[in-house]
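Q: Now give one record:
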Amino acid sequence: MEHYLDSVFDHVRTLNPGEDVFHQAVHEVLDSLGPVLERHPEYREARIVERLIEPERQVIFRVPWVDDAGEVQVNRGYRIEFNSALGPYKGGLRFHPSVNISIIKFLGFEQIFKNALTRQGIGGGKGGSNFDPRGKSDAEVMRFCQSFMTELYRHIGEYTDVPAGDIGVGGREIGYLFGQYKRLTNRYEAGVLTGKGLGWGGSLVRTEATGYGTVLFAESMMATRGEAFDGQRVAVSGAGNVAIYAIEKAQQLGATVVSFSDSSGYVVDEDGVDVDLLRQVKEIERGRVSDYVDRKPSAELVTDGSVWDVPCTVALPCATQNELDEAAAKTLIDNGVKVIAEGANMPCTPAAVELFQEAECLFGPGKAANAGGVATSALEMEQNASREQWPFERTEDKLTLIMKNIHDECAETAEEYGDPGNYVLGANIAGFRRVANAMLDQGII
């Protein structure tokens, strides 16, 4: 079986040269699948793995737009529709200068398993552009989004592909994208995008969902060892949507969160992060973490080293892929970390994950721990279909139950396959098995 999986991975590298992040995501999943393929030879006979790692559709397109100076700019847009065995493609749009085909394919591949774990009938997809909204005026962002949607609209729909937000795509961008979709199609199809404004089809808790869900997953992991967030010292990376609401939920549960970061450095606040101030600085003013420090006497900005140098018992990486490497993992372990839950997608390198597992830390991989965002997007789709908007408490209760079910399924699957406590193995096999069975039922397509 090891030889078979090695040959599949070699094929992926040959077919997708230079796509290192995508290769990493595929290898991480393939590394878990040996036991389930031994137990279910029908998966191998139907070439499920080979079909799963090849996107059903890849769309790459030009995005021309005019900036405020009247100059024509050109960006590249992507939508990878990876797998629809369980339902319409579902996954966010990322606007960031680092975006390329490898990153979008890695994110779309991860989304297949993440969405399967929610049990909500959604397939895996992802999209975005190398456009950078930072420093752009609202008018420039609007013109870019309108141009982006002028191509994307041909490929999406509430029963086909349902994008959401991601890094660089928040409520402002979703609004402009939706407006252009509505204009082009001449219909009000609320279920075509999620993360919408509350006044026109959005869902309460969607803003908080990824960060809240990460903490709820970590809480379930901690409960297996008789622990809770109360009294824990928490380090968080990032200062965007996921980080802000992970901080908020952790502190609601009694923890003290002492750090957050952006590309300019990291902040240490021994008094505990003031979430309202951080939200004001990052979400309303679109400022930098240094603006937080200027207004909070207890906070210190550090511009060298790593946010993971801050001692903590719980680490929540919520920034971007491969931000937490082997050296950072060693520092965290030496400083007494016990729990790591990925709020971002694949923020820990393979070497870091291996160190955490060897140290018997509780480690929650992103495809399980940060599934709360897409889960609540699916709840938004459900509300759109019934023309309802649920109260905050009802939606949060549903999110809490979904995250507990994801945790329990990952834990039970890991135990079933002989490696209790290995949430990476549990998440990969549980998600794969659900998609593979649907693919078997639907024939060779």
Summary: The first strand starts at residue 57 and ends at 66. The chain has a mean pLDDT of 97. The two ends are 24 Å apart (CA to CA). The longest helix spans residues 392-416.
